[in-house]
Amino acid sequence: MKTWITIFYFAVFVPDISFCAISLNAKNLKTLRDGRKYLQPINPFSLKKLRHSNLNLPKFYDLQKEYPDCISLKNIKNQRNCGACWAFASTGAYADALCISKNISVDPSPQYSMNCDKFCPPEPYQDRCDDGCKGGTLYMSTLWLNENHIVDEKCFPYAADKKQCSSECNASDVQLQKYPQMCGGTLRDNSVKGMRAALYHYGSLLVGFFVYDDFNQYHGGVYKQKTGRQTDYHAVRIVGWGEEDDGSPYWIIQNSWGENWGEKGRFRMAAGINDCIIEEEYYFFFPCDEFEG
């Protein structure tokens, strides 16, 4: 299976609000994007549901409403003062797909990824490895989960700090259980239509976006970047979409800053314009037998 690589790195936090990024200038951004030459995205026709899909997708779709029994979509986590958004977003996307495709509801442990995921990109980006509160990458965290799966939050409760990797749960009365394998990847099609189709069939989309000063003032509504400087980069997952009264599309996005932030822990963001490069790349998980090569 082929996918592409992201070398956007999630690492930095500021007081009271945690991000997961380093500041990137135009030269660095071009260099990091060039990292994608190593791997290529999946052809949509390689996945059964996308190959055989002729659905007219609805104007409004929210995974949380469609799958109310999926605890990963219901629980809004809080990464606190730790730059581990990459672990929250990737384990959440894996758990969402597992619940949607196999009806297995799991409250995933980002701590397990923080402790044990030390995957590094190929040269020359090996200084951007997944590393607990110091940050991680979308591509590497997806790849690591492909091989190592997720475990339950009860096994490794969140500590807002990287701990020693262990094959035994923190609680003596809990057994480590790795849930079924899901495969992860991205598509060549990063249009709104393509992203909606992947989300509709398989589950939430793991994405990252530039954080600007005006995002720090978000309290509700559809966010569209207007003012301020770019300060950080943050990993989240897209869990739905909708349209404003004038027909303008938006994404529904689950954050990891607690349920008291934004719209009960989520926010909406303008879609179709690659605002803050949120549509630049995305990853999602699916049953491995869906892939037909």
Element layout with pairings:
Layout: H1 26-33, H2 48-51, E1 61-62, H3 63-66, H4 71-74, H5 85-102, H6 110-116, H7 138-148, E2 183-185, H8 192-202, E3 205-212, E4 222-223, E5 230-243, E6 249-254, E7 266-270, E8 284-286
Parallel strand pairs: 4-7
Antiparallel strand pairs: 1-5, 2-8, 3-5, 5-6, 6-7
Describe this structure in words.
This protein is α+β, with helices and mostly antiparallel strands and 293 residues long. 23% of the residues lie in helices and 15% in strands. The protein contains eight helices and eight strands; from the N terminus they run ααβαααααβαββββββ. The strands form two sheets. Strands 1, 3, 4, 5, 6 and 7 form a six-stranded mixed beta sheet that branches. A hairpin with a 5-residue loop joins β5 and β6. It is globular and about 55 Å long. The model is unreliable at 1-19 and 21-40 (pLDDT under 50).
Fourth CATH level, the homologous superfamily of the domain at 26-56 and 69-209 and 281-290:
Cysteine proteinases
Low-confidence stretches: 1-19, 21-40
Query: SSE order, as H and E?
Result: HHEHHHHHEHEEEEEE
What is the fold named in CATH at topology level of the domain at 26-56 and 69-209 and 281-290?
Cathepsin B, Chain A
Distance between the termini: 7 Å
Helix content: 10-25%
- Residue fraction in strands: 5-15%
CATH structural class of the domain at 26-56 and 69-209 and 281-290: Alpha Beta
Number of strands: 8
Mean pLDDT: 84
Largest sheet: 6 strands, mixed
Query: Which overall shape is indicated by the principal axes computed on the Cα atoms?
Result: globular
CATH architecture classification of the domain at 26-56 and 69-209 and 281-290 = Alpha-Beta Complex
CA-atom Rg in angstroms: 18 Å
How many helices? The count is: 8
Structural class: alpha+beta
